[in-house]
Write a structure and sequence with these properties.
Layout lengths: L3 H17 L5 E9 L11 E8 L4 E7 L12 E8 L2 E6 L10
Antiparallel strand pairs: 1-2, 2-3, 3-4, 4-5
Length: 102
């Protein structure tokens, strides 16, 4: 099944593992997916994941295909955040700074 995590999430995962470096390894991953809008075509709307690394770094990722059609990037959204002891990084690929779409 092609899902937001399979199509977009793999690229985000690759980038973040590169940023983290080969010495840091994930020790726990918790993910949840939801299927409401895209159920009719047999795929998931969104997946939210939290990764914990062996040094205590926490990284979260969200990939979705369930944005409203009036959203600037209604085809997909990806948000990646990593928080460490020396800083934090957020990559927001939803094509929106502060938007309310209704």
């Amino acid at each position: 099944m092609l899902t937001p995590m399979v199509i977009s999430g793999t690229h985000a995962l690759d980038v973040m593992l590169f940023v983290m470096g080969p010495e840091k390894q994930p020790v726990e991953v918790v993910s949840r997916s939801i299927s409401r809008v895209m159920t009719g075509i047999g795929t998931q709307d969104a997946t939210f994941s939290i990764f914990t690394f062996d040094d205590g770094t926490i990284w979260s990722m969200e990939c979705n295909w369930g944005m409203p059609t009036i959203w600037p990037a209604s085809t997909y959204g990806v948000t990646i955040s990593v928080v460490g002891t020396e800083g934090a990084l957020t990559i927001d690929d939803t094509h929106a700074d502060f938007i309310m779409a209704s």
